[in-house]
Amino acid sequence: MDTEISIVIPAYNEEENIDLIVEELEKVVNKLNITYELIFIDDGSKDNTWDKISKIAKNNKHIKGIKFSRNFGKESAIFAGLNHAKGKCCAVIDSDLQHPPETLIEMYGFWKNGYDVIEGIKLERGRENKIYRWFSKLFYKLMSISTKVDMEKTSDFKLLDRKAVDEIIALPEKNMFFRAMSSWVGFKTITVGYEVRERAAGNSKWSTFGLIKYAVKNIVSFSTAPLQIVTFLGLIFLIFTIILGIQSLYKYFSGQALGGFTTIILLQLITGSITMLSLGIIGMYISAIYDEVKNRNRYIVEESINIL
């Protein structure tokens, strides 16, 4: 029988949540009375996540598993799941149950009514520390400016039609930002709101540094906004230089003494700071280009189960 829906579930050190997410998702698909597959991607977990997935999959052919040789990141895990999905539509959901599985019923209904991309939108972000919340707003503000799409409340929780999935997995780039890419491909889109749950078990695997690194990598891979910031800073400094130059010439021709030492030091500090910042931003883009040119695989599969 043709698979109606594939549900992709990235997992990293989520051994406590595997049984729970399977139970919740099977309730949903049984309520919808449709054919399905649950595709777990173990992103190099250090705990017993893969053992849990394997044990369940041996007794349930609807459960499929892919184990990475190491941690390649969530984006690679999502791509691997979509690449192996056989469903007419594909959903992506977190394994920690912060994305409510019952929302898939509403998403599936919109898909049946002709929508190709159903975006899960956070009605409330849940409990987050202030630093993380501030960086999240800054990150999504930059992404919204570059993509012309409001991404402040978006998430990886989505349901996509097969044609949208095929377009995404056909893209050649290695560093892919799935959250924005689903909007970039276009097609008929609608949003569905959901309340972020507390984690069912365990703790978040994201550190503040890890989130900043993840944000910077995805901004560089999807947006040219930082390069535009370099241009903006250069323009601001040019205006400042012109004004300072006019002021200096005026004082010179009017016979006023110039306190040159302080001015020179300030100019050197400003110029040096902007130059180093600009080189850093350009360096990030060169690094991204270097990663693409190497053309390495997005991920390496060490083991799989029920994958044809």
Describe what you observe in this structure:
The chain is an alpha/beta fold and 308 residues long. The chain has ten helices and eight strands. The chain has helices at residues 18-32, 49-58, 74-84, 103-112, 130-147, 162-170, 178-184, 208-222, 225-253, 260-294; strands at 5-11, 36-42, 63-68, 89-92, 117-124, 154-161, 189-195, 301-305. It has an eight-stranded mixed beta sheet, with helices on both faces. Helix 5 runs parallel beside helix 8 (208-222) and helix 9 (225-253) runs antiparallel to helix 10. The two termini are 15 Å apart. The model has no long low-confidence stretch (mean pLDDT 78).
What overall form do the CA principal axes indicate?
elongated
Number of strands: 8
The profile of the biggest β sheet is: 8 strands, mixed
* Radius of gyration (Å): 24 Å
| SS field, number of helical segments | 10
Helix content: 40-55%
Give me the strand/helix succession.
EHEHEHEHEHEHHEHHHE
The assigned structural class equals alpha/beta
Q: Strand percentage, roughly?
A: 15-25%
Mean pLDDT: 78
Kindly report the spatial arrangement of strands forming the biggest sheet: 7-5-6-4-1-2-3-8
Spans of at least 5 consecutive residues whose pLDDT stays below 50 are none
Q: What is the CA-CA span between the terminal residues?
A: 15 Å
